[in-house]
Write a structure and sequence with these properties.
The complex is a heterodimer of chains A (about 100) and B (about 550). Chain A has about 100 residues and is α+β, with helices and mostly antiparallel strands. Chain A contains two helices and five strands. In chain A, strands 3-2-1-4-5 form a five-stranded antiparallel β-sheet. The relative contact order of chain A is 0.20. The C terminus of chain A is likely disordered. In chain B, a hairpin with a 2-residue loop joins strand 18 and strand 19. The chains are: A alpha+beta (about 100), B alpha+beta (about 550).
């Protein structure tokens, strides 16, 4: 997982699904889990990655969330924007039909 | 239709109670996610991209009005007001909360429904011809045998942990409408020289990342031997099927590896050991189940259905709907009504709670209180008097359920794709919608004629792309959605696996590419021929040339 020395660290955020609702959440600065990726805490180095992995593990054990993992993002104007289509859809809900989205 | 007996009720209620306890223990922290995950999957509960997804079994696709109303109630109370009918005659709810699921399942149980064996490496919901009991060509109602198989396979202790999931389809007619060649076991009813009915048994078919057409291992299996023979097949598979590699664990790999003849011989050997025992299907037992599927009490209709004919002559839209959505019924004066869940702008197979209520009401009023869900993600009213059709059509139309496109270019099979599914690489629903929109002109649809466009968002092929005339497979290229086109697939009697036609297309290109395929077909077709006929005659070349230019063969 850890990227060594010369390689540039790819900025990431921590995501998971809530245990009860199953809804997509992101680890935010306060240490809480929030549906809005805009406030997600940026992971910009290995130390931070290790720290947030520990936070996520704790939340997993406490039964707050399930399946935590990190995703690469680009910093956009409203906030982090996931690089992959899959994660963009996870962040914003189904793209169709309009009436049923998040 | 079948009604639960005390054993069925007990099994389902006890399972709800058991799962309620498991959910409570998960929420209290007593169970970890690793411990809980297999338990929730045994109850049809997945965790998808955005939320939990609950898959509920609709045995062989048949529902009563009361059950359909319950599906609507569940959509409203526990979900977001809609449900998704799947390519395996099930329904999926996309947004339930974990803590609500036990109550949801208790509500389901009150109408004899459940989510048992809708996931996991067990025998899944048995599927059947959606026109069972009403088709003109049928030998016998396949649901009788699908129900017998359901009872045998439900919580079968020996087959609860197979190497991989296992799907069985039953057809009671010579024309296959249940895709029996693309199931782990396909049963096709036939008559022997003595005039007795039995089954041709096909094994090892399937789609997924390695599509295979099933092979016949028994030409004629007498009905009384159905369960002992199935048990023998499952036992051989359970012992010899691979468990070391999930991608090679389905029965098709075993059949291919040891060969059909060897596999058939092993089944025969096991069968000789167990036939004539407790699994023998006695006539009384078949008759007991048959009684649940007795033909409806049809009216004897002798006079010309003049109101129907007049309505067709005077109402062009109604006439068009009848031409594409109504099939002949074995009983004179009745028709089979196909309700399309593929209107422009909606996800294929989705129905809102209000629409489910409308369909339930129409089934109650006009179709002997019974309806069916098809693997093409539409709904069928099995037996409607022709004289009632105009009224039924008007009521469907008011609920946005009267799209006249059954079997046509906009009647697209699509999996949930990347909009919902954890496994998907690319979206299916918006591609289906864009194609639907592109081919929404009724004249054009009629001109193109019968064609299957099937879309899967990943190689697992839930959208049946391998058996589409035009198959579309979503792939991931560096995080971007791309789509491969296959042509010439066929799920039925001329079973064929679609042939990949060339490099994939981007999300923005795919609909134009499909249009190119269709216009190529229209350019080379002979009068009255379907896409499938034409493909068999001309092959891939004209399609490749028009899609990629003459230099790329």
């Amino acid at each position: 997982m850890s990227k060594k020395n010369k390689q540039k660290f790819e900025t990431r955020v921590m995501t998971a699904n809530m245990l009860v609702g199953g809804n997509v959440v992101y680890l935010v600065a306060s240490g809480n889990w929030d549906e809005d990726i805009a406030g997600a805490r940026l992971i910009e180095n290995d130390d931070e990655l290790r720290r947030l992995n520990n936070v996520a593990q704790e939340a997993l054990v406490k039964g707050i969330i399930v399946g935590p993992y990190t995703i690469p993002i680009a910093i956009g104007s409203p906030g982090p924007n996931p690089l992959s289509k899959r994660e963009q859809i996870r962040a914003n809900g189904p793209t169709v039909p309009a009436g049923f989205s998040k | 239709m079948y009604r639960y007996d005390e054993f069925d009720h007990t099994i389902v209620r006890e399972r709800v109670d058991q799962f309620r306890d498991q959910v409570a223990r998960r929420l209290s922290g007593e169970l970890t996610e690793e411990e809980f995950r297999p338990l929730r999957l045994m109850n049809g509960l997945y965790l998808q991209l955005h939320a939990y997804m609950l898959r509920v079994a609709i045995p062989y696709g048949t529902l009563s009005s009361k059950q359909m109303r319950m599906l609507a109630h569940i959509a409203r109370r526990y979900d977001r007001g809609y449900g998704h009918f799947t390519t395996r005659q099930n329904i999926q709810y996309n947004w339930p909360n974990l803590e609500d699921v036990p109550d949801l399942l208790a509500d389901m149980a009150s109408v004899e429904m459940h989510a048992i064996q809708t996931s996991g490496n067990c025998i899944r919901n048995v599927t059947a011809d959606p026109y069972a009991g009403v088709a003109t060509d049928e030998l016998e109602d396949s649901r009788i045998y699908a129900e017998i198989i359901r009872q045998w396979s439900t919580l079968h202790p020996e087959f609860s942990f197979l190497p991989r999931k296992f799907k069985i389809a039953v057809s009671g007619a010579p024309i296959d409408r249940a895709a029996v060649r693309f199931h782990d076991i396909g049963l096709q009813m036939r008559q022997n020289t003595r005039g007795e009915l039995g089954f041709g048994v096909l094994v090892g078919g399937g789609q997924g990342r390695t599509p295979v057409i099933a092979q016949t291992i028994k030409d004629f299996l007498p009905k009384q031997d159905l369960l002992s023979y199935l048990e023998a097949i499952l036992r051989v598979y359970n012992m010899l099927g691979r468990r070391d590699n999930i991608y090679k664990a389905r029965i098709k790999f075993l059949v291919n590896e040891i060969g059909r003849d060897k596999f058939a011989a092993l089944v025969e050997e096991e069968w000789e050991r167990i036939r004539g025992g407790a699994l023998d299907l006695h006539r009384d037992e078949i008759n007991r189940i048959r009684a649940y599927f007795r033909p409806a009490l049809y009216e004897l209709i002798t006079e010309q259905e003049s109101a129907y004919d007049t309505a067709r002559r005077s109402d062009r839209e109604f006439d068009r709907w009848c031409a594409s959505n109504i099939l002949p019924h074995k009983q004179p004066g009745y028709g089979i009504v196909n309700i399309s869940l593929k209107p422009v702008g909606k996800a294929p197979g989705d129905a809102t709670a209000d629409q489910m209520d409308v369909i339930a009401e129409l089934a109650e009023l006009y179709s002997f209180d019974e309806l069916r869900v098809t693997h093409k993600q539409n709904v069928v009213l099995g037996h409607v008097r022709l004289a009632d059709l105009h009224s039924v059509w008007q009521q469907l139309d008011a609920a946005m359920l009267a799209t006249a496109n059954i079997g046509l270019a906009s009647d697209i099979i699509a999996c949930p794709g990347l909009d919902y599914c954890n496994l998907a690489n690319a979206r299916s629903i918006p591609v289906a919608q864009k194609i639907n929109e592109r081919f929404s002109d009724p004249e054009q649809l009629a001109r193109i004629g019968q064609i299957r466009i099937n879309i899967s968002g990943c190689i697992n092929a839930c959208g049946h792309h391998h058996v589409g005339d035009i198959g579309i497979l979503g792939v991931d290229r560096r995080g971007e959605e791309y789509y491969q086109i296959t042509l010439g697939g066929d799920p039925a009697d001329n079973a064929a696996i679609g042939e990949s036609i060339g490099p994939s297309f981007s999300y923005d290109e795919i609909v134009d590419a499909v249009e190119t395929v269709i216009s190529t077909f229209e350019g080379v077709r002979e009068t009255g021929k379907t896409f499938a006929n034409t493909w068999r005659r001309v092959g891939a070349t004209p399609f490749k040339e028009n899609l990629y230019g003459p230099t790329r063969k």
